[in-house]
Amino acid sequence: MLPPAARLVGAQLDYYISDDLYWVLHAPRQSGKTTFLQNWAMELNGRGDVVVCYISVEACQGILDIDSAMETIYAAICEYAKAADLPVPNLPINNAKLLLQKSLRKLAELTAPKPLVVLFDEVDVMENGVMISFLRQLRGGFAVRAPGVFPTSVALVGMRDLRDYITAAKDGFAPNPGSPFNIKTDSVFITNFSKNDVAELFSQRTEETGQRITPEALDYVYGQSWGQPWIVNYLFNRVTMRILGKDNFDTVTLQHVSEARERMIAARETHLDALAVRLLDPRVRRVIESILTGAFDPSIGRNNPDVELSIDLGLVKWESETGFSISNPIYEEIIVRFMNSGFHDILPPPSNWRWQTSCGRLDMDSLLREFQHFWRVYSERWEEKTGYTEAFPHLLLTAFLQRILNGGGRVDLEAAAGRGRMDILVEYKGERFIIEIKLIHSHDNPVTVKNEGLKQIAGYRDKAAPEAASYLVIFDRRASAKDKGWDARATWAAENGITIIGC
Fold it and tell me: What's the predicted TM-score (pTM) here?
């Protein structure tokens, strides 16, 4: 257990209580928000100078009727107050639209003379008019907040930053310094685990059981998760409880963690499935496609609402060195598998292709020649039936590789917006291969694209796998390419030790 409060960025917890402030906390799913809230509530209630009530409004998900939503929130307030041994604000329900404000007034009255602090969890499940009514009722009590009158401090907690809803609740006026939720200065988020946090988490198990973990395995856990708490905990739990067994305290190795990673992806855990479903939102898909293709899109900036949504959901990160990318390698694989599942599932079984040598090793030349032929025969018909444009070549090639190598090899991706490419590292029976995908558009010079690709793949090979055979796959996406005919487009050449494949 790592205390989540240490990972709150921008939080001034004591200040919120002492100065009677309302504030917002947001972070992706299963980052530690609820753990923090419940622990903090216990800590504050233990101090004795305030009364804290934690309330989850998750039951409001999908409720669009304001009266029904407010009755649901009122029921939650009563339920959580009772669970915390607080007085229950029993009220007659004669005006449901103001029921939230009335119940909070009553709870503040019943807990007087101590100030009342309310921590609302899962608030972003509310939508449209329900959320607006919720915020307006809080705003209505803010001006009179005082012990015995109305909660003196309120936290709104969820995955999303609520700036748009808060603005809408003020009839389109942005929050000012006197607003209840001045999220410009007090919108707090929880960071992922640092590399030291990951080591500290397992060291607690070492102290308790004597079980150790190799440095390579620790590095792999952090490298695959980038410290996402759910992934870190899942990998450690899967290794110690399932792969080794709960009574086996042998040292955890890289091989153990790698196996746990593959089982996680194969099992399609609820957390990962819920994440992937977000790609059905066209706003999110637009950002993800831009990253997968390495597109240079000036509208994909940190202030773009679609980008903000993708970051809030934990799907995308931005770093000064790399720009926008998928949050971690495991999410990247899950996202691509979700997006290309239609291709993957309809592809013929591996036995239909020529892709292995007589001794069972991977014959990448033959595999990519098979893909080149498949692209020639099916790509135009398949693309017409999909909603993808830019990312279609990337998704089809990765689906092809995953379909053939699934269970026997690894297909790792590296993509970021503005890179102009996707890099793929294939591992099979101890051998590694590098594939880079480039696109030729109408404004591109094919020779320039090829030369740029050769330089990029050489750099990636030097960093990732200097010994790996390398392949540059170039898809000609120009309308004029169709006039050239497939014999002219489906090329195969080699330059500087790199195989260049035209599609």
Answer: 0.85
